[in-house]
Amino acid sequence: MWLGASEVVADIFQEHRRMISKASRSVYIENQYFGSRLSSAEEAQSPRCQALHSHTQNDLAHLLFEKITTKATLGEKFSAVVVFPLATEESETHYPNLRTAQCLQEALEGFWKANKISSPLSEYFGMYNLANVVPVNTTSSAFYGIFVHSKLMAIDHDSDSGAEAIVGSANLNDRSLLGDRDAEVSLGVKGTFVQALMSTLFQSHAASALPRAVDLQRRLSEAAESNAGRLKDVGINWDEGTLGSKKLLDQNEQDDGFLPELDMSEAFQVGSGVHWKMLPGKALQKGLQGYLLPWRPALWGDADVYRSWKHYHPSGAWLQT
C-alpha cells in the first residue's frame, strides 16, 4: 500500500484487467511471475487443478481464459501468449507459476474438447520460456536458461487505435496486484511505441519480423517448437523433460516422504539464470532461432511437488541432471 494513502490502491491490477477485457486481436504477457486464479467452473475443467491448493485472489487467468474461449467460440482469430522463466529465483515461489500454467492449460484443453472447437488451441494460446544452447568447441555445447524479469503486457500491437502496453515493476501475483502489500509503479503507453516494443521482443525471442497480432501465437509457436527439436542434437528431449536417459528434475520423494537433496555438482540452476550446463560430446548442429522454447509440464512435473517448504533450496530452483 502506498504510504499516506487512506485506501488500497490497486490501479495496476485494474489496468491489467481492463486491457485483457478490451483486447480484440492479441494479449502478450511477459513477466517473472504468473500467479493467478480461474473461476471455480473453469478450474473444474482441469482434472488436476482442484486438488492444487491456492489462496490466490487476482483473476487475470480467468479473464484470459474468458477472452480466449469467447474468441474461439465465435470463430474469431486471436493470440494470447505468456512468457515466464523456467523457474523463479526461489524454488518455493515456483509453485504459483506452475499451478497457474497447469490449471490454465488443462482448463482450456477441457473447454476445447467439451465444445468441439475446430481450430487447434495452439492457434490461440501458448506459454513459453527462454533459454539457449551455444557451442563450446567442436564436440561440446552449453545450455543455459534466460531469467525473465520483465513485467509487461501488450495488446493489439498492430491496431492504430487499440494498441496499448503496460510496463513497470508489478509482478502478476497478489503481492504486486492487490495493492495491500508491495507498492508498485507501472507506465501505460498507447500508439506506435507498442508495435516498436513488440517488434524488438519478437526479434529477440524468435529472430523474426513481427507478424500481425492475430498471428502472434502461431508464429511464436513455430519458432519455439523448432528450437525444441534442435535441442535433441545435444541430448535434451524438451517434450519429455529428459537429458539423455535422465529426468531433468528428480521429482520422486524418498521413503521418508522427503524430496531428495539436490546434488549441486550435478544440478543445473535455472532460477537465477546465471548457470551453464556443460553437455560434453554434444555439438549443436544448428543454432536456435532466437531463445524461445515451449512451456512443457514434463520439465518440472506436477506443481504440487513445490507446494511445501521441504523442496526449498537457498540457492534457487534447480534442474537435476
Automatic annotation (TrEMBL):
Q: Report domain PLD phosphodiesterase positions.
A: 144-176
Give the GO molecular function terms: phospholipase D activity
Gene3D superfamilies per record: Endonuclease Chain A
Enzyme Commission designation: 3.1.4.4
Quickly give the catalysed reaction.
Answer: a 1,2-diacyl-sn-glycero-3-phosphocholine + H2O = a 1,2-diacyl-sn-glycero-3-phosphate + choline + H(+)
Keywords attached to this entry:
Hydrolase, Lipid degradation, Lipid metabolism, Repeat
Q: Which SUPFAM superfamilies match?
A: Phospholipase D/nuclease (SSF56024)
**InterPro entries xrefs:** PLipase_D/transphosphatidylase (IPR001736), PLipase_D_fam (IPR015679)
Q: Name one GO biological process term.
A: phospholipid catabolic process
Protein name as it appears in the record: phospholipase D
Organism for this UniProt entry: Symbiodinium pilosum
